[in-house]
Each structure stands twice: as structure tokens, then as C-alpha cells.
Amino acid sequence: MGKTIHKGEGHRQRLKQKFFAGGLASFLDYEVIELLLTLNTPRKDCKDSAKALLKKFRTLQAVFEAEPEQLQQVDGIGKVNAFGIKLIKEIAERYLEKRIIAKDVVKNPEDLIKYLHHSIGNKEREYFAGIFLDAKNRVIASEVLFAGTLTSSAVYPREVIIKALHHNAATLIFAHNHPSGDVSPSSGDIAITRRLVFALSYVGIVVHEHLITGGDDFYSFHENGYIDKFKKEFENSNG
Fold it and tell me: How, if at all, do strands 127-133 and 139-147 pair?
């Protein structure tokens, strides 16, 4: 007796052929999810489940950020599917992190920005990260330092200094996300940056940058003159 072909098999094969022909460039977001679901769903059409996920969470990024229990609330999504979605997200994050290790991200920030967009850019809470660099501005490590609503009193320079010394860092880049997607700095963001520039300057560690990421956008404190301004203020106050 021949193998039973489910109704979505032809569509599934076309999706795979489309991917091998041109990657994900021409895929709609629900098709990306659908293709992923097919890996753990051998004999079932996954289109409806993929569209339901996108309808519930609204964006592709939010699907990948959702907790496994939330994913399983969607019809057709079981533990195995939720595992696959979370695994792919973690693999992508690890891959992007490895791409920045030992690279000069000051002169070539593109990989760093991609990594930050993926790792914290679409989180529903605020996360404050430190990227620790050596004297040649090569990345030693990246680490989330604080989580939750960020205020100037919630970011502790002493803890940042301890982490920097632990990693034997010569320079630092800070980054945090705005869940709203609006990357404009608040007065608190500016105050945090100033405090950290001053605190790290006392122990001879240079702050190169503070980036705010949200969705696919970002804001650079360096490009907008804040980092140099705070360094000059420190020099003048200790001259």
C-alpha cells in the first residue's frame, strides 16, 4: 500500500524549494513560522497554526519571545512545536553572540547591532547589557547586567565595575532596550550614562558607547555627542 500523502504535503515541499532557491527573503512572516513548524509536525498542514500564532502575538519577533506555555495556547501548537520555536531563537542568539566575540565592534558595529536587536530589542521588559572589550576594542564577553524598569537608582556602577574587572575589560559598550519601540533617550537614560562614564573613568575604564534598541531601530549616545560630553565633564571636574 502506498504512503498516505497529507493535504499540505505539496505546499510544504514548495515552501522548502522556495527556501533553498532564495532563503527567507521572499517569505511572509507566517510562512517563516509555518516552515519551522513543519520540522516537528510530520503529517499535518501547519499554515493555520502559523497564522494563528502570528495573529495572537502580532509580530514574528513576539512569537519567538513568547513563553512555551503561551505558545501552547494556540491550537495545533504542542510541547514539541514550542520547543522547536524556542530552540531556534536560542541558537540564533548564540550564533550572533559568537559573531561579535574577538571583533572590533567600535569600528564595525553592524554585527553588534544585529545581536542586540535579536537578544534584547524585542523584549517586553527592559534589559541593560554590558559588552566588555579589551584594549583593542575586541569583544571579550556580553552580559545582561540589570533587568526590569530602569532608573538611575536601579543601575549600580559598583556592580558594573566589578564585572568589568572580572572580565579584565579595558573599554565598555552599554546597551538597553525600550519595549515601546521608541528609542529616544529619557532623562533617566541620560543620567545613567553620565553616572557610568564618571564611575568607570575613576578606575581607568573607557565607555565607548551606550545604545538603545527597540524593534529594528536604535539610538547611539556616542553619535549624539553625549559620551564625549560626559568625558569632558569628568576631565574638567578632576582637572
Answer: antiparallel
